[in-house]
Structures are given as structure tokens and as C-alpha cells.
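Q: A reviewer asked whether we had any structural model of the full assembly, not just the individual parts. We don't, so I'm hoping you can provide one. Inputs are below.
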Amino acid sequence: MSKIVHITRRERFSAAHKLAKPEWSEEKNYETFGKCSNPNWHGHNYVLWVTVKGTPEPSTGFVVDLSALGDVIKDKVIQHVDHKNLNLDVEFTKHLMTSTENLAIAIWEQLEIPVKELGADLHCVKISETENNYVEYFG
Amino acid sequence: MSKIVHITRRERFSAAHKLAKPEWSEEKNYETFGKCSNPNWHGHNYVLWVTVKGTPEPSTGFVVDLSALGDVIKDKVIQHVDHKNLNLDVEFTKHLMTSTENLAIAIWEQLEIPVKELGADLHCVKISETENNYVEYFG
Amino acid sequence: MSKIVHITRRERFSAAHKLAKPEWSEEKNYETFGKCSNPNWHGHNYVLWVTVKGTPEPSTGFVVDLSALGDVIKDKVIQHVDHKNLNLDVEFTKHLMTSTENLAIAIWEQLEIPVKELGADLHCVKISETENNYVEYFG
Amino acid sequence: MSKIVHITRRERFSAAHKLAKPEWSEEKNYETFGKCSNPNWHGHNYVLWVTVKGTPEPSTGFVVDLSALGDVIKDKVIQHVDHKNLNLDVEFTKHLMTSTENLAIAIWEQLEIPVKELGADLHCVKISETENNYVEYFG
Amino acid sequence: MSKIVHITRRERFSAAHKLAKPEWSEEKNYETFGKCSNPNWHGHNYVLWVTVKGTPEPSTGFVVDLSALGDVIKDKVIQHVDHKNLNLDVEFTKHLMTSTENLAIAIWEQLEIPVKELGADLHCVKISETENNYVEYFG
Amino acid sequence: MSKIVHITRRERFSAAHKLAKPEWSEEKNYETFGKCSNPNWHGHNYVLWVTVKGTPEPSTGFVVDLSALGDVIKDKVIQHVDHKNLNLDVEFTKHLMTSTENLAIAIWEQLEIPVKELGADLHCVKISETENNYVEYFG
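A: Here is a predicted structure for the entire assembly that you could use as a starting point for your response.
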């Protein structure tokens, strides 16, 4: 019998970004993205929750070793984005409009295979940008 | 290819209410609803999370403009309930037993069409009444 | 040698109230107190922190038995205000403008002597009305 | 017409435990479980969220009486685990590797039938061990 | 008789910054400030608590009208720093090493006189940069 | 001119303990310490806030390098208590009744000199045992 359990690990990172299309004027960017288009950047303390699912391994009771999962998240995501500029410094986000929606999709793509290699399935990438909003991507 | 993302906005309101059936005696109401039936009302800081889903728009990276979503929630819900009495002052709740369950359903009905008009689908209305309980309604 | 330690216990209560002077018109009350003057009341989840200070008793390591302190707070404060209307139901607040400032002072007066009887000194009564504001009264 | 609503109650407990297989050496346990294998135990403030679902009862607006649900959770779970050692004191966990995954499954088994007897369906048992991780079990 | 009460209002802002001395090399800045020296900036969701003290006004029960205090904080601080770069965009911080310590002092200087004009005394400016650190400045 | 700023760093640890005097019977311990006297231990996620004060250094804007402060706290406190039994495993607490009051004093004694060596003054050690209580020790 296999009992599926979801397990979630929280990580945090602080980064700068802006929302602005380079080919648009500053005015048009402000009209579309408001204060998020500030040319000199702004930033956030992002909170990231990574949920994986699987069957607890009988000898350990673990779906996945949480510290191994933490290492994967740090290696594939956090070290690349923490104290960085998401529009300038990060290979997997710098070609994107760095909306929280697109960050969640990009982080999913970083994690899907490495989580599989840990023996679990990636279920959800959730990111909050402020205490008043968050996004979830389920692949 | 369309990638579905869920995005959630948090809003808050402070309101008075009570749980009591007018046709019942004070004793019967107390028996059923306990201290929530206090005739002179009590109140809460309600927290409301509204989750919508859709595909990020390629030019903005947004499922929905969060500030437009915030405006809809304020216009359709918050301005009607904040610093109000849910049993006396609010058109869409005053005919109800104002349990958190019924509030979630009533707020869903206020938001379903306006969210559609923003180009997204309402996915969940979540309300907490205290830090120890919350309800979720998925339509 | 006596080492002074401060110890704080958190309790919570949900209550209705309004800010309005009965001798003023509804308009003047609205002008002064804004939406807090709604005639049909509103309410909050108040959070109360009671800080006492003293020297840990050598045999227990306690400044004060926290569950005895909790009992005092429940007996003198929480049972009187929880799920009540602060302007109508509560002996020690109903004669007051129920601002958070005045609540803190009134609760201090309820607790000062009973805390002394537990062998400690009341140091601070802190109350938050919403996540964005709180008051502290030090006697 | 039946509208399904999910309602969640939060409870908390503080317990000691360790992760270690008695038939393994201390070294092998450390290799597998890290600092969680400390022979003299460690502990946590566990937070438990129990989500049930059902249709609000028309006369009360309740899926389930939250205080009855709270009593069930206290009776079947909290009183057995709070201020206890999960590996030594608790009938329904002491035969387990007390990973958070296994705790969630064991608590589900304690609650499934009693929740049914309250007239609702158990939907999810969620437990957090620290602010950085939680598990969810959906049966 | 005058009873002194402290009242605190929380506001939030999201901003970009870096810690780096322009006259130092990138290496020396990294050595001193670590990842906070990233040339392309990073950012935070700053939380600001402003505490003022005074005697509640008898007719209102208020030390200060909280919404007037909120307006002062928004006018003198938040509108200048929210979604801005603290090193490039903000008159009262751009000449500073933008450590949290210096931000607290700079914000105190923005608020001291306007709070006095509201009839209260500024008591403390507290800022958190992440959930793991905060500073307090008492003038 | 020297402006004193307080800066606080939060750290966390998970530990087992009990409150019981070895020379007392189990019954007398239960009478005095309630469920905290469980012979098989219980545990908590302790949260520790260490506040130091000083004048920001002009070239960095720092009262103290926060990561150096973090290293001191980890070296002198966290590594000794995290995932440990406070009554059995920890040199600086195992001779104590491990009340939160006594933990705060013991941790102060671990930190006072090392903080001085960083060029600041220890101002407060604050510990919470659960979300409903915390202690503060100011030396």
C-alpha cells in the first residue's frame, strides 16, 4: 500500500528587480506596471515554498531527506537569486518579465528534474513577494 | 502552450457580528452558538485571501493585474464589510447566519463575475476569523 | 544577588466596540473617529501581552507560575471582554472611550494588584487592535 | 443544492522525539538522520491543522461545530502528544519512525472516524515541525 | 494626572539598495559587506514601526490620531522610499551607507518634528530588513 | 556625537527538556510543574533574540557586523543547544532548572563577553518557548 504525503520546505531570498519592457518608454512602463517600473530598481524578501510528494520510505519515514531537498533548492535556486538582481544577474530569469508568476515557472523548471533525482515528484512552487500576495505553480 | 498559475491577494477587514437565530430564545442560541451568540455582538479582524487562476499574459507576465484585482476586492467586498456589522449593515450578508462558511460563499458570489471580467477565473475564497480557524470555498 | 527577569504571557480576545461620543451627532463622530464610529459597531481580534518582572524563585526557576498568571489574566480580563461588546457589556470599559490606549490603562488597573499577589510586579500591558498598531502602558 | 466548504482548525502541541533506528549504531543513525538522531532527544512546538469538508447546515451555517471539532482533536490527539515523548509515551506513534510524514498519517488515522461521526469528511492533516517545513496528508 | 501611553504604527516598504563604498574596489567591498555589496543591487521588504508617546486626550482617548500619524509617516517616509533605490532615489538616504542602523536614524530625523506637531513625542523608530534582524533607534 | 542604536538578531533552536527536581517525587513535580514535568521529556522550538547596542561605525554604518554576531551566537549558544536535551547535554544549562527565565540568564552569560569583543554591549536576551510566552533578561 502506498500512502502519498506532500512535504514542503521554505527558503527565503532577497533580491532586486523591476517590471519594465526595455522597448517601451518610461511613461508606458509606469502606466502598465506602476511603481514596480522604477528605473533604479526596487526589491523584496521573497519567500519560496517547494512542495514535493511521494511515499514515505519505510526505514526512514521520509518522502525525501529534507536537508537533501534544502541543498537542491539552495544549489539550483537560492545561491543564484539571493542578494542578486533578477533582471541582470540570474541566468534563468534575466530574459523574463520578472513577475512573481514567471519566477514561479522559472523556479519550477530549475527544480523539476533534481527533485525527481531525489526520488520524489515536484508538486508546487509557491512564492510570496510581500505579505499580501503569493503565486502557486503546479507544473 | 498555456501554463496555469494561481495568484492570491490578501485583504483584511474588521467587523462585528453574532451567531443567533432571531426566532430562537437567548438560551437556545447560547446552547447552539455559545459565546458567539452574545446579544450585544462581538467582532473579529477577518483576513481574506482571494485566489484566481489563469495563464500569464506574455507581455506583462501577469495572470491578472494585482492592483486591479485589489480594487475589485475593495469595491465589491471590503468597503461593504470593513468596520461594519455583518448582520445589520451589509446587503450581501445580513440575511445570513454569518458563520465563516457562509461569509466565504457570499464573498465568492460577489467576486466570481468581476474576476472573470479581469480575464481570470476565481479559484478560492479563504477567510480566517481567528488565528486558529479558516474556511475555504472553491465554488 | 537578585537577577530581574521580565516574563510575558500572550492572551487573545475578540470583541465589538465603537468610538463615538453619545452627546455628539453621527456626523461629528464620523468626522472625529472615521469608520470607527459606525453606529452598529465593528470588532477586532485583540491580542494582549502582559509583562511582569521579578527574580526567579530558586527552587522552580520561575518569576511567576505562568499558568497562575494566565488564570489571573483570564479571571480579571479575558472572561469579561471575550466575545463581548466593550461599550455595553464590560464593567471596567463601558464608561470609557474604548480607544486602545484606554483599554490598556483599564486592563492595567484590573491586573496590578492580582499580579502583586502572585509575587511579581506588573511591568507592561500591550494590546494590538490590528496587525498595524499596538499600544503599551507601563503604569 | 450542496455547496462544499473546507474548514480548518489549528491546534498546537510541544513534544520530544528523536529519529533513530534502535537496531542501528549511533554512528549509522547520525549518518542517516543527522542531529535529529541525538540519543537524549530533542523537541518541537508542532502545529497541527485539521481540515474537514462538508455542506454548511442551513440552520447554523456550520459544516461542523468548530468547538466540537476542537474537542475531538484534543481528545484523540492533543492530550496524548502534548508535553510527551512521541517515541516513548504515545500509543499511536511509539512504534513508528516519528518523521513528520508518519505523524501526519498516524494523526489522520486517529481522526478519520471521529470526524465522520461529526457529520463531515476529513480532508487534510497538516503538521509543521518548524517554521521551515510542513507535511500534508490527504488520506 | 497624566498617564503616558506608547502607541506604535506599522508601515511597510519595498526597496533596493546595496552596501558598498564607491571609493573601494569591488573586492574590498565584498570582503567587508559580503553579498550585500552586489554591484547590481538587491532589495528587501522593510517593515517600519514608529512609536510615539503621550497622554491620551480625554475627549477621544487618543495619544494621537493614528490615521494622522499614518499620513505623516507616508508623507515623510514611505512615499520617498517605497519601490525606490535607497542609494540612488531617496534624498534623505542616498548620501549614507544604507545599513539598517543608518536608515533608522535617517527616518527618525524625518519624523521627529512632524510627530511633535501632532502633539506627541517620537519614542522609537524600529526597522526590520528580514525576519531575522531589526534595529531600534530612540533618538 | 554618538548615536546609540540597538540591533537584534534572531536565531532558533529545537531542544528537549523537562521541569522536575530530581530530589522530589514524580507526584510533587507534577503538582509544581504540571505537564512540564513529564519524566520522558518534551520539547520546543525556542526562538532567541539577541539585542546589542552601540554607535554605528562611520565607514560601514554597522553597530556590529551582523554575520559576526550570528557566528558568535551560533558558536557560543546554538551549536550547544540545537537538537539537544537541555537537562542532559548542555554544559551551561544542565545544572539548572531549565525554566525559560534561567535559560535567558544562562545564555546572557555565554554571550556578554564575546559581544563586548565585537565592540558592542549586550542589551537583552529574549527567548520564547511557545507563541504565548517569552522572557527578557537585561543583565
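A: Points you may want to mention in the reply: Chain D has one domain: 5-137. Residues 5-137 of chain D form a domain with the Tetrahydropterin Synthase; Chain A fold (CATH 3.30.479.10).
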